[in-house]
């Protein structure tokens, strides 16, 4: 049964998000995509090729969400809303709390070099979007004019990763709502030069 490529990528995303890169087998992908292995190999070359397309799509969506924060008139308020996402995920989609990139990175030592390289590129691309948030908040006066943009963006990305990871291990992600406010408050605080 043939599906548009985008639908196959969406279906594969769910599998990789649930099982991780290493935990996902071709049979899992075959079932999710309702395709024979030959069709998957023909369309994507390999499991790695399919994952890289999933990663590219996922990174693009996440980058777009962060850039929407950067392009808003009130970036810090929009940042709060963006960071609150894991606190609102329904139980049926709990696997989506953790960032797909971070989930894959958990198996770093065993990942193929091509996947490692693309994960690093994805994180760098997202860090650029976090830099855009910092720059916009600085230009609107929500952050100090002398905030170190690259360091603040890297710190913010780390907080985003920590929030998404921690939210998977607590009984109720909503119990972490204080953390979102703390992240934004700390971002607005003093930065040592």
CATH homologous superfamily (4th level) name: Tetracycline Repressor, domain 2
Structural class: mainly alpha
CATH topology: Tetracycline Repressor, domain 2
Strand tally is 0
Q: How many separate domains?
A: 1
List unreliable stretches of 5+ residues.
none
Helix percent reads 55-70%
Overall pLDDT score = 91
Terminal CA distance: 58 Å
Q: In angstroms, what is the radius of gyration?
A: 18 Å
- What is the CATH architecture annotation? Orthogonal Bundle
| SSE string | HHHHHHHHH
Shape: elongated
Task: Provide the β-strand percentage band.
Answer: under 5%
How many helical elements?
Answer: 9
Biggest sheet details? none
CATH class (first level) name: Mainly Alpha
Tell me the layout of helices and strands.
Blueprint: H1 5-23, H2 26-33, H3 37-44, H4 47-70, H5 75-83, H6 100-105, H7 113-139, H8 149-166, H9 177-187
Helix pairs in contact: 1-2, 1-4, 3-4, 4-5, 4-7, 7-8, 8-9
Report a brief summary of the structure.
This protein has 193 residues and is mainly α. The chain is built from nine helices and no strands. The chain has a single domain, classed as Tetracycline Repressor, domain 2.
């Amino acid at each position: 049964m043939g599906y548009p490529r985008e639908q196959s990528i969406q279906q594969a995303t769910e599998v990789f998000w649930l099982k991780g890169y290493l935990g996902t087998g071709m049979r899992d992908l075959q079932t999710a995509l309702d395709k024979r292995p030959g069709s998957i190999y023909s369309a994507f070359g390999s499991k790695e090729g399919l994952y890289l397309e999933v990663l590219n799509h996922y990174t693009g969506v996440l980058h777009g969400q962060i850039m929407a924060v950067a392009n808003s008139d009130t970036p810090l308020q929009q940042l709060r809303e963006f960071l609150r996402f894991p606190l609102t995920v329904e139980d049926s989609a709990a696997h989506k709390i953790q960032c797909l990139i971070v989930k894959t990175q958990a198996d770093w030592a065993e990942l193929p070099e091509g996947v490692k390289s693309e994960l690093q590129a994805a994180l760098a691309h997202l860090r650029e979007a976090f830099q855009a948030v910092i720059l916009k908040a600085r230009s609107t006066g929500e952050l100090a004019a002398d905030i170190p943009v690259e360091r603040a963006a890297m710190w913010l990305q780390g907080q985003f990763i920590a929030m998404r990871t921690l939210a998977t291990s607590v009984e109720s992600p909503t119990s972490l709502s204080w953390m979102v406010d703390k992240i934004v408050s700390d971002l607005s605080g003093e930065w040592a030069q």
